[in-house]
Each structure stands twice: as structure tokens, then as C-alpha cells.
Here is the input.
Amino acid sequence: MTGAAALKSEISKSFPDAEPARVFFARQNLTLEETYGFTPDNTRFAEGGCSDEINEAELVFLEHYWGERFKFGGLAGYCHGGKTGLSAVSHHVPEVDGQKNLLLVAGTHIGFHDGIWGKVPRKGQDRLTACCGSLSTVLAAGCETLKNREPDPLDRQQYAVEQILLPYLSRCNEAGIPPDIVEATRFLQQRIDEDMRVMVAELEDRFDGLIALITGVTINTVQGNFFSASIVEIRGAK
Here is the structure.
């Protein structure tokens, strides 16, 4: 088994549907264009990825394909831009020959290196670093520390991530087990999916066009990013 095949096999134990992110998004681009009529001229691309620069490769790839992007994400890949952010980008969509399309890509991420989840080596550093750092910080703080923490107006996004993860931390506390970075990532992704579906459903009622919603977990490795899709759907299709 080659190095790439072995890596994919290891990742698949936790994320069975994961594949190289560039392959996944290249295929989605072609499907959107050939099946649904999305083109760079009639489409606005918006993404809710984590602020971590390690996620940029595929987001830049999508931007080069579809054109400049609107950002509605932030720490841990949660949709911090909320309803206002999605409403705003819906007013930025170009229309060509009666067709306009909105492409939304969202999701959290996790590092993987030499069998270790939640860590990844970064260029120019001689040690592994947390990935996702925001989520890892929440797990390290723990339930008891976070449940009574007051909001910090200078750290609003991290506070939001903490509040989202508190039910997971509480569940671990009650069971007497330490939180697990992979399970916490899945928990966060489920919340992202739920919230995105609610916001997109509301947006669909007032947006006269197609909305492509793609969510999932990005797995960061030194051999490139993988992507485990969660939601891939077209809203508004007749």
C-alpha cells in the first residue's frame, strides 16, 4: 500500500467517506456546472470555513473557479456570520439570462498526523500544533471551567464555540470519560449542519435562484487535505 493509500485507509476508519479534498470539490464544480447551470458569471461563492490558514488550499481553488468569495465563517468553521451574513451575500449574486446561483460551503476541520487526531505539523515548526485550535482549546478547558464563563466581548467567536460544545462536554462529564477530538468534531459538524439548514431554508423563501449547500469536515494532513462530506444538496431546483 502506497503512502497516500495508507493515509486514506487510516482516515477512513474515523471518516469513512473522506477523499482528497481537491478531487471532491473538482467533481462538485463539474456537477454544478454541467447539471445545474452554475457558471462563474451567474454564481456567487460563499464559505464558512475555519479561519485557520491550513484550510485555504481548497477554498482558494473554489475561489479561482467561481470568483471572489464571501466569508461567513470563523473559528472552528461555525457559521458566525449567521442569518445576516447569508442574507447579505444573497444580495450579491449576479444574474445572467434569468439565472442566479449561490454556492455555500461550510464545515469544521481536524488535523491528522502519524495516527494522532487533532494535531498537525506546520511549515517551519518543529512540533505538532493543535488543529482545530479553537475546538482543542474548548476541550482542554473542560466543562466545569466553561459552563459558568461570562461572554468576553473581545472573544465572541470562541465563546460561541464553547457554548456549542458544552452539551458534548457535559455528556462526557456525566459518563466519566474524557472528551475525544474526533467525536467533538462530529458533534460540532452536526450543529453546523443543523444551523445551516435552518438558515438556508429561510433564505430559500426570499432568494429567487438555486442554492448549492455543501458541508463537511476537512481533514488536514501534511500530504494535503481530505474532505468528508456531510450535506450535498441543491435547494430551489425545479
Observations:
- The chain has eight helices and ten strands.
- The chain has a mean pLDDT of 95.
- Helices lie at 3-12, 21-36, 56-66, 82-90, 133-141, 143-146, 156-175, 181-204.
- The longest helix spans residues 181-204.
